[in-house]
Amino acid sequence: MGWVILPLNVIFAVIIVFFERKEPTEAIAWLIVLFLLPPVGFVLYLLLGQNYNRQRMFVVKEHEDRTFLREIFAEQQRTLVGGHHRCNTTETERFHKTVSLLLQNNQAYLTGGNRVDIFTRGEDKFEALFAAIREARHHIHLEYFVINNDGLGRAVIHELAEKARQGVEVRLLIDTMGSLRGGGSRAAFRELTDAGGKIGEFFPSVYRVNYRNHRKIAVIDGVTGFIGGFNIGDDYVGEGPLGYWRDTTLQISGPAAWALQLRFVLDWNYTTGEGVRLNSRYFPSPGAPGRTPVQIVSSGPDTRWSPIKEGYINLINSARKSVYIQTPYFIPDESVIDALRIAALSGVDVRIMIPCKPDHIFVYWATLSFIGDLLEAGVRAYTYDAGFLHAKTIVVDGEAGSVGSANWDIRSFRLNFEANAFFYDAAVGAELAGAFEADLNVSTEITLEDYLARPLGVRLKESVSRLFSPLA
User: CA of 236: how far to CAs of 55, 123, 153, 232, in Å?
Assistant: First the structure.
């Protein structure tokens, strides 16, 4: 067997070095795995590593997305540069560079007049989602990484099927690996398809860990949307092995629902080929129920850069007083580490909150190692002790921030399809910062003294996990 694997590993090494253009640290990590652990490296590379065909797989999707957005992008770019955009507020003026960056690198147009409600408990989020589904009159569009075949998952499918039987258009886009691995099954969705609902499976391969659709989006009648970190299943209402589930989702009513709708339609059409048209049935007048400016930002293998990560960095660089971050996984690259370190050394109150318990032990040890690097620069870090922290958020100076599906790790920055809402509103920022500060009451600070005193066994686990973290 070895005489077959070794030549294949050599071929993989040539591909890594000369064709894939991986980051140097990631390339070196893969070479180490391939040649020090030949059988293991061979299998891991097949499952996790290969991206030489990424461009071929998603070049059509990138072209279609950009074609749809080009006209909107050009018009808004002209108004922003001229300083005449109708969404101008104190917050958008202050974070003008972030707005412009996301418009330029992601064609993420800025919408004003939105109402934004924050949910940090699964019970509240799903109560609001069920209410919105029951009020639907024309269509319901859901796009989730995980929909489990359990109590909550079946309840959502049943509600969708009821609306489909009433003549409402129902489209459900799932990630095959995420849902099947989470206990879902194609049979579990049969009630919906029997009722006339439609299901799309994004990238229907359960053997490829990369390029998964990690987005969590719901759009109801084109006027109300949800975006955040909650998947659909009993775990997300605290009925799983990790206990209480602390996450964050935004319900957005207003023009930003159009942007969520556009994201769904582009993903749906790419996945199913149905060709849903961009007309007034799916983009009705949303009104202006609030005052919050919002950009919906997408990233994935079909984007040239890393727009969500770059948005995070730009927000950090804009901070004057504080940066609050919550994430279940913290495996940043050097650009993120440098931004956080520089902010802390400049006197900004930088705080990062991670779970106290891991759902992926390898990633958890790597997370602690990167947290340790930042403590010396004055960054303060905490473990959330009241359950499992799954929120993916940042709030800067209590005035602007982001909530979505993107973790603070390399997988979310480069390998998976993600979607985040960037907001510019002191009222929303204050509420999100308040939620973070409330969580401090049930958290434990990781001090530099405690970190330096950790046992030798923990240091070894961190070192090994960190070495292979570019592969995570």
Answer: 34, 8, 10, 7
